[in-house]
């Protein structure tokens, strides 16, 4: 019995049917398209069984599946080592073409090369597309073709190029869903793939505050942020639709979206930043790396209300306000002299919106070791930050239940810690 001739569209971090570039092109294939998602063992096996991000992925795959049912189709869900999954699919189907959207993280790049080589050996054409960014890889470079390492000129070049094509073309992938393979695949439960539902949930995004974003974004008690970051991370929203909208709404909000692409370009061009300082001159810093102090930072018991409120918000909800992220990161690296990699790893474990490029980029910014970073002698004072951005203590009281009962003393005195950090950095910087 001959095998069915098909094409595949491989969902990864683009969990939507609307304005999906790779999906759009796959649905114009000569062959019926099987939508596919793989729970990659290399990623999910290290996660706790109640990881809310897996639940969010599963929830959005379910939404995709329900929509596909309208055209008598469904999504094929697999779990395992990615290479093994594709080897099995090649045996089961006569695969003619495979389509997917690009991912720029180091592991994903290696994985995609491996799968593309497997497909090529089996005479299967693979095609990848730009989908999660407006400009990728080497599209925004200096005159000499080298990547920017300072944000402002990158932003200026980005805007200059965007204005020549605005609005960016969007892709009507929804109208082509009838070209999907007509079959109802089994849709697994969360338990089927080895996970359980978490009490922590990804919040819906909200754009109603964007018009005055620059006036409210630094005040955590207001809770008037977009909550877009997790949706951008997993591709449940289209970056093209969002940027085309934001361009006419708010320059500061748009600038934050450009920061995202700046850090993605840095990660692509300098993959060492995942574990190493962007500025090698900082490799000589003698970090204290006190494990007990790190635990207090993780648990939100440092005695600094702004720091502790942020860490407790993170631990309880998977979110932390962006202004507070800067304060807690500076505190770990400067006040406690614990190297940024420790904090970056903890955020990677807890943040619902964890994105490697932004997390690494922002941690290195706070530590002073990254590109376009805060200078090493800039040390946030958590008490001044609280007075400036949470003057009435609304935010800290929300997350520190015992605040009114007489809050504990700071674990380290600010002036001493600041001086210690500056001396340590200055002594450790390699000339």
From TrEMBL:
Keywords (A to Z) from UniProt = Chromophore, FAD, Flavoprotein, Lyase
Q: Where is this site: Electron transfer via tryptophanyl radical?
A: 287, 340, 363
Where is FAD bound in this sequence? Answer: 213, 225-229, 253, 256-263
> In what residue span(s) does the Photolyase/cryptochrome alpha/beta domain sit?
5-134
Q: Which cofactor does it need?
A: (6R)-5,10-methylene-5,6,7,8-tetrahydrofolate; FAD
A Pfam short name: FAD_binding_7
- Show the GO MF annotations: deoxyribodipyrimidine photo-lyase activity; DNA binding; FAD binding
- Cofactor stoichiometry and binding remark: Binds 1 FAD per subunit.
State the InterPro entries in the record: Crypto/Photolyase_FAD-like_sf, Crypto/Photolyase_N_sf, Cryptochr/Photolyase_FAD-bd, Cryptochrome/DNA_photolyase_1, DNA_photolyase_1_CS_C, DNA_photolyase_N, Rossmann-like_a/b/a_fold
Q: Which GO terms describe its biological process?
A: nucleobase-containing compound metabolic process; response to stress
Q: Which family does it belong to?
A: Belongs to the DNA photolyase family.
Q: What is this protein called?
A: Deoxyribodipyrimidine photo-lyase
Q: What is the lineage of its organism?
A: Bacteria, Pseudomonadati, Bacteroidota, Flavobacteriia, Flavobacteriales
């Amino acid at each position: 019995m001959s095998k069915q001739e098909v094409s595949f569209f491989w969902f990864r971090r683009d969990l939507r049917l609307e304005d999906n570039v790779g999906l759009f092109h796959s649905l114009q294939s000569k062959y019926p398209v099987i939508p596919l998602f793989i729970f990659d063992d290399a990623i999910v096996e290290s996660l706790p069984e109640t990881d809310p991000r897996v639940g969010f992925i599963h929830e959005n795959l379910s939404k995709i599946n329900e929509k596909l049912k309208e055209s008598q189709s469904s999504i094929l869900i697999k779990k395992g080592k990615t290479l093994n999954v594709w080897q099995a699919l090649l045996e089961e189907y006569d695969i003619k073409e495979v389509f997917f959207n690009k991912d720029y993280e180091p592991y994903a790049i290696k994985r995609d090369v491996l799968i593309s080589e497997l497909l090529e050996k089996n005479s299967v054409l693979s095609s990848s597309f730009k989908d999660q960014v407006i400009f990728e890889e080497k599209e925004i470079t200096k005159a000499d073709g080298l990547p920017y390492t300072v944000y402002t000129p990158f932003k200026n070049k980005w805007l200059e190029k965007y204005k020549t094509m605005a609005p960016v073309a969007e892709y009507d992938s929804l109208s082509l869903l009838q070209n999907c393979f007509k079959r109802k695949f089994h849709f697994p439960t969360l338990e089927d793939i080895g996970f359980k539902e978490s009490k922590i949930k990804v919040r819906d995004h909200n754009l109603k505050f964007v018009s005055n974003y620059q006036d409210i974004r630094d005040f955590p008690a207001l809770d008037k942020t977009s909550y877009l970051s997790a949706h951008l991370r997993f591709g449940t929203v289209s970056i093209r639709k969002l940027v085309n909208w934001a361009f006419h709404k708010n320059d500061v909000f748009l600038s934050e979206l450009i920061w995202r692409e700046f850090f993605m370009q840095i990660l692509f061009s300098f993959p060492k930043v995942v574990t190493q300082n962007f500025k090698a001159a900082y490799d000589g810093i003698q970090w204290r790396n006190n494990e007990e102090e790190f635990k207090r930072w993780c648990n939100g018991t440092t005695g600094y209300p702004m720091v502790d409120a942020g860490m407790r918000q993170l631990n309880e909800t998977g979110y932390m306000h962006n202004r507070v992220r800067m304060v807690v990161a500076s505190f770990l690296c400067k006040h406690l002299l614990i190297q940024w990699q420790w904090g970056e790893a903890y955020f990677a474990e807890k943040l619902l919106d964890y994105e490697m490029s932004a997390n690494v980029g922002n941690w290195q910014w706070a530590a002073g070791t990254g590109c376009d970073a805060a200078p090493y002698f800039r040390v946030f004072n958590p008490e001044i930050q609280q007075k400036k951005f949470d003057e009435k203590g609304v935010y800290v009281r929300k997350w520190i239940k015992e605040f009114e009962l007489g809050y504990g003393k700071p674990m380290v005195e600010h002036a001493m810690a600041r001086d210690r950090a500056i001396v340590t950095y200055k002594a450790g910087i390699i000339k």
